[in-house]
Structures are given as C-alpha cells and as structure tokens.
Amino acid sequence: MNSSMDKAASDTNLLETPPSYVFNRAKRSWDDDMIRELDDFKKEMKEMMEIFSGKQAKEMQQISLTLNEIQKSNTKIENSIAYVTAQNEELQSKINMLETQAKEDRKYITLLENKLEETQLGTRKPNFVIKNVPRKNNESKEDLIAMAMCLSQSLDCKMARYDIKDIYRVRGKTNEIQNSPIVVETGSTLLKAEIMAMGKAFNVKHKTKLCCKHLGFKTQEDTPIFIADHLTPKASRLYFLARDLAKSGAYKFCWTAYGKVYLKKDEQSQPVTVRSEDQVHQLMIRN
User: Fold this and answer.
1) 130 by DSSP, 3-state: which?
2) Which top-level group of life is the source organism from (predicted)?
3) Alpha-carbon dihedral 123, 129, 135, 141, rounded to 10 degrees
4) What is the pLDDT of residues 4-45, one digit of tens each?
5) What is the rounded (10 degree) CA torsion for 259, 263, 266, 271?
6) pLDDT tens-digit map of 112-122
7) Distance CA 151, CA 192 (A)
8) Which end of the chain is more exposed for a tag (fewer CB within 10 A), N or C?
C-alpha cells in the first residue's frame, strides 16, 4: 500500500517537473525582451535627447545672436538718446540765454523808446494842432500862417508872425483825406498854453463854437475846428485808448496837457497819468 503511494508520489513529482522547467524558460525570455525593449527605448530617448539638444543648442545660438543684436541696438539707442539729451540740454541752455538776452533787449528798447518819447515830447511842447480844417486849392504855407494869425485875433490872443517858428499840414495816409491836421510850431510853451486855454474859454462863452470862419474862411465857414496838443504817436495811441475807457463810464474825464494823457474818475478823485497801453488795460480790468 505504501509502496504504491510512494510510487504514485514519485510519479507525481515526475509529472510536475517539466512544467516547472518550461515556466523558467519563458520567464527568461520575457526578461530578455524587456531588456531589449528598454535598451531600444533608452537608445531612442538618447537619440531624441541628442536631436532636442541639437535643436536647443541651435535655438540658443540663434537667441544669443538675437540678444547680441538687441544689445547692440540698445547700445546705439542709448548713445543716440545720450546725444539727443546733450543736444537738448545745449539747446535749452542757448534758449535760456537768448530769453535772458531778449529780456535785456526789451528793457533797453523800452528805455530807448522812453528817451525818444521824452525827446519828442520836449520838441512838441510849444506846438498846437488845428484839426478839421478844409484844405484849400493850391494851399501854401502863407495860407496856413494867415489862418493861424486870424485864429489868434479871433481868440484875442497876442501872437505875432515871428512867434510862429513853422507851420504845416500833416500828410494824410491817402490823398482823399482833405482835412488833415495843421501843426503850428510856436516859440513858447506859454504862448501855446494861452492859445489852447483861450480856445476852451471861447467855446464856453459863445454859442457859436470855433469854426472855419474864425480862420478867415469865406466858404465852409461853419465847419467846426478843434485846437489840441501836438501829441507824439505813442501819446496819440494812449489818448485814443483812454477816451474809449472814459466812454465806457469807468472814468468821467479824459484830457491831454503838455503832451501827456490824463484820466479822472470824478471831480474829487486824483488824476491818473496814462503812461502805457498795459496800464490802460489794467485800469479797464479793475473797473
């Protein structure tokens, strides 16, 4: 019984051995395949990495070249900016210098203008102007002297022929202007002041104001005439602006005396001497 069982066990062992042998051979074959596949994968990955590294190296080289170009370009731009900045600073310095010089020049020009104004004012102080006098045909200097002498007689003012240093009619801007002013240059500021004062008094006392008949005209006798200061171009401009200011109601009185222009708000206020256009504009703003 036992021998039969041992034999059976032995037979069983014999039967089990071949399958175990076959299994071991299959395992070794699978491992070899895995190793080969792994080697192939490693080889493939290596090739891919080499290709990638090569591409990356080329790209890095290209990027490096591009960066170098950008750096060179940036350097050029920085140099250009530095040059432009230096140029701007130089130009700004020149502009500041020119502005300073211009301010000094304007001050000097203003000083010269004031000196010229004072000189012109001094030469015109003894003069007076007769305005709105019709021009005669073939008018001569003798005609103008006769008008001035007739005016002095009408005003009962003692003025001799030798008191007139010169007399002339101002040239108009166009030939169409017939009634341009007549300038009478006298030898005395006092005589000029007396004529102007008596002219104002005459217009106050008489209903018939000064007109051409008081100059000896036989025609156009009723044409009104006016006696005024012989103003400089600057003073004439200031007088024009000051009258506009007075017309606006800001000032009640506007007049000239000895070539200067004055404004006054009312009878109680102090007169204001008008010296510049800016001053007129400031007075207009304040009021």
Assistant:
1) strand
2) Eukaryota
3) -40
4) 444 444 454 444 545 544 444 545 566 777 888 888 888 888
5) -70
6) 988 998 898 88
7) 13
8) N
Quick: pLDDT tens for 220-270: 888 999 999 999 999 999 999 999 988 888 888 999 988 899 999 888 889
**CA dist list (Å): 217 to 69, 148, 150, 221:** 96, 12, 10, 6
Alpha-carbon span 264 to 262, nearest angstrom: 7
Provide the residue type at 48 as one letter. Answer: M
Length of the chain: 287
β-partners of residue 273 are: 262
* Secondary structure (H, E, C), 168-206: EECCCCCCCCCCCCEEEEECCHHHHHHHHHHHHHHHHHC
Range in 170-179, 197-206, 228-237, 244-253 the model is least confident about: 170-179
| pLDDT reported for residue 169 | 93
φ/ψ of 230, rounded to 5, equals -90, 90
How far is Cα of residue 163 from the mean position of the Cα atoms in its chain? 52
As a whole number, mean pLDDT of residues 165-193 equals 85
- Angle at which helix 277-286 crosses helix 233-247, to 10 degrees, equals 10
The two three-digit tokens of residue 36, written as one number: 């080969």
Question: CA distances (Å), 283 to each of 234, 249, 255, in order?
Answer: 18, 12, 16
Helix pair 2-124, 233-247: axis angle to 10 deg: 110
Q: What's the chain's average pLDDT? A: 85
Burial class of residue 182 (count of CB atoms within 10 Å of its CB; 0-12, 13-18, 19+): buried
